[in-house]
Design goal:
alpha+beta, Nuclear Transport Factor 2, Chain: A, 5-stranded antiparallel β-sheet, 5 strands
Length: 234
């Protein structure tokens, strides 16, 4: 080569200038106002402001992942079972006497019913005395005396007790009272001194409904109940 400006340097400079111009035309120039690229490593996804469809799609997709809880409304109130006056009275008796049990009481009342009816028919006042209150005993004893004076006898056969129900109960001044209905089938015959039937029919079964009230002082150590009142249901 000669001493002049090397031609190959000029050619390299022209090629370099050409490459720079091409890069600028493809990449453009950075002015500081360029749009920021979305951060792909963000803990929360952000849709671009102008991409409205993207927001809608994301909301719909999110809605699919939400478990809808149906409104069950307020919890229904549990209605306490209303206590009847009879149940309240029986509970009051049980509070005063923890040994009291309505079912056992009815069983005992049935036994007392049969014993008292039998003793009355026999005229056995000694058996009746501890089972009856003073007033009831006086009435029973008076009826027995009247029958004896007439030289009459009473024959009573209890065919069966068809049903029993506690009708009423009360607690007053420590004294408990319970009324029981006895639905029974009986044969009652009154005979004179000669053995003739003066009342009743030995071949006829009669349905008799009695309501007996038993009482007991719950403060007493004596656990036995007494018959304090009798009536016959028509």
């Amino acid at each position: 080569m000669g001493d002049g400006f090397p031609i190959d340097i000029i050619l390299f400079a022209m090629v370099a200038a050409f490459i720079v111009l091409r890069l600028r035309s493809v990449l453009g120039r950075r002015t500081g106002n360029e749009r920021q690229r979305p951060d792909r490593i963000s803990t929360g996804s952000r849709a671009r402001p102008e991409d409205k469809s993207g927001e809608k799609q994301e909301a719909e997709n999110g809605a699919d992942k939400v478990v809808q809880l149906h409104d069950q409304g307020p919890e229904p109130e549990v209605q306490a079972e209303t206590e009847t006056p009879l149940a309240a009275s029986l509970n009051e008796i049980k509070a005063a006497d923890p040994r009291f049990d309505p079912d056992e009481f009815v069983d005992g009342a049935c036994t007392a019913f049969e014993v008292i009816v039998e003793a009355f028919a026999e005229g056995n006042t000694d058996k009746l005395r501890p089972l009856l209150s003073d007033e009831v005993y006086d009435n029973f004893a008076s009826a027995i005396d009247t029958r004896k004076q007439a030289s009459e006898t009473l024959e009573t056969t209890i065919i069966g007790i068809k049903g029993t129900d506690i009708l009423e109960a009360s607690m007053e001044d420590g004294t408990a009272r319970v009324s029981v209905k006895f639905d029974t089938e009986q044969i009652n015959v009154t005979l004179n001194e000669a053995g003739d039937v003066v009342d009743g029919d030995a071949d006829h079964i009669t349905r008799v409904v009695d309501i007996w009230t038993f009482g007991r002082d719950t403060q007493s150590r004596d656990p036995n109940w007494q018959l304090v009142r009798t009536e016959t249901s028509q």
